[in-house]
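Hey, can you fold this one?
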Amino acid sequence: MNVVMEIVAPIFGIVLLSFVLARRGVFGVEASDGLTRFMFYVAIPAMLYRTMATTDLPVLIPWRYILAFYVPSFTLFIVGMLMARHIYRWNRADQGIAAISSSYSNMVMLGFPLVISAFGESAALPLFILLALQSTLLFPLTTWALEIYGRDPQSSQGSILRSVVSVLFNPVILSLFAGVISNVMSLEIPGPAERVLDLLAAAAPACALFALGLGLAQYEFRGDLGCSIAITVLKCIVHPLLVWIACTVFQVDQLWTQVAVLLAAMPTGINAFIFAHKYGVRVSIVTKSILIGTLLSVLSISLLLNSYQIRGVN
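Sure. Predicted structure:
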């Protein structure tokens, strides 16, 4: 357990530090937005490109691994919609927000610092495979749920096209694909450029965690919590359980299984809030789900990592 705390305590310590500083007024909304943009457009893409450009890529696409993670993710997407429709009687557009909140993991701000801290560089490839696909697969599906299934008669086809284009030109996705292309073509990064990438990549984990704390400090934790707790249970408990079962069925390698389960145990990703804010639906429910999930993940992630330690892994 001491080894687990050495991994978990610093990670959540940074989140807590930035949360407290934001709540005390040291950092405002502008600082949070600025740091988030730096992380999203500069630091994280630099780290992802650098890693993918130098990682030994698999000869074959690991379909079993991908299916083991995303079949449960798609299942929970549907379950989230059905829960919102039949239990909470939400309208169609709101059901799309429940769907992404139940299935979309916080891989960038929380997932990758935890995975790299816990497993080291050997976990980089399985981590970035799932990271590359999450937005690519779930963003268009969420856009469909919000703009086609839950269509407002006033909306247009152009808004759907813009949403798809925004996914394709997402800096995280672009940096991953650019890194893969550089790797496949054996392109060498010039010395000065490599140093710049190294400096920016080194800043990425701390910036992501600090930005997460600043973002969480802007959310309010009050009112009816029933739906938020239900979403959190799906995301932080059911999701990793289903991924573990799927990895067992598909006979996924042990390290890759542990990475997938740990990422599935992450709380709802910040992009669920972005969708909710953009479309003006169920914002308070999503923000409370992110808060509750982040608090719960301190315990659930510690238990997961501790179980890995007991088995002599890491």
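The longest helix spans residues 283-310. Let me know if you want another pass with a different chain boundary.
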